[in-house]
Amino acid sequence: MAQITGSTPPLIDTPYFVDTHCHFDFPPFSGEEAASLASAAQANVRQLIIPAVSAAYFPRVLALAERYPPLFAALGMHPLYIAEHQEADLATLASYLANKPEKVVAVGEMGLDLYMEEPQFPRQLALLQAQLKLAKQHDLPVILHSRRAHDPLAAALRKVALPRTGVVHGFAGSLAQAQAFIRLGYYIGVGGTITYERAQKTRKVMAALPLSALLLETDAPDMPLAGFQGQPNRPERAAHVFTALCELRSEAPQEIAVHLLENSQRLFQLPPSQ
């Protein structure tokens, strides 16, 4: 099985943060992109990956990534929108990927969700498998949504054996489930859940996993952090997630920051921030 390498990254004097999961094409960022990116940069969040949730949003996600150097795009179809996705959307995704836009760094957001009402699981699974096939065909990593579906998702990933693997974003499962994904070569997305004292299970998981398997994210404007309840989440708050992670880990903050950056660059083949 594929393994995430645990080699020590080269020393980076001033590591910065990459928000590997930010829905920057939605309000409150729409029309305020430059100001929002400036706020993120002030918090040392210098690159963001925008995962699309449906084919209708591919043009705007790609346009944002092409307009702003800190932004990168992922194109995919989210399981929560299963009732809206059409068969033709897969052909649309295939067409976009065939054109190989420079700023597209992943396929996603895709995945499985068994928490939603009327999950239509067979349709979800078929859509996931089709997107995984496209990711493999175009040698791209994947950004995965998984809610109450870690085991069937791991089974689907095991079958397809992607060379570039991907990330299970906003992970809130068990340590054993996280380790199963890591054994397959996948990364685990660390988000705002760990800022809540009550989220002891997730906090313990993120404290126990190898640094070589972790990525930083916000899922903005969703998943508000502790202390910001009722407010849209924002990419600059990736710095707050990092602080919370440092409080849970035994390593020095510099080492944690270096690993998070190196992991992001390795998985998504991101260029250094300018």
TrEMBL record:
UniProt xrefs under PROSITE patterns: TATD_1, TATD_2
The keyword Hydrolase appears for this protein: yes
Pfam assignment, any one: TatD_DNase
Keywords: Hydrolase
Superkingdom of source: Bacteria
PANTHER family reported for this sequence: D-AMINOACYL-TRNA DEACYLASE (PTHR46124), HYDROLASE (PTHR46124:SF3)
Family as reported in the entry's similarity comment: Belongs to the metallo-dependent hydrolases superfamily. TatD-type hydrolase family.
Annotated protein name in UniProt: Deoxyribonuclease YjjV
The species this protein was found in: Yersinia aleksiciae
Higher taxonomy: Bacteria, Pseudomonadati, Pseudomonadota, Gammaproteobacteria, Enterobacterales
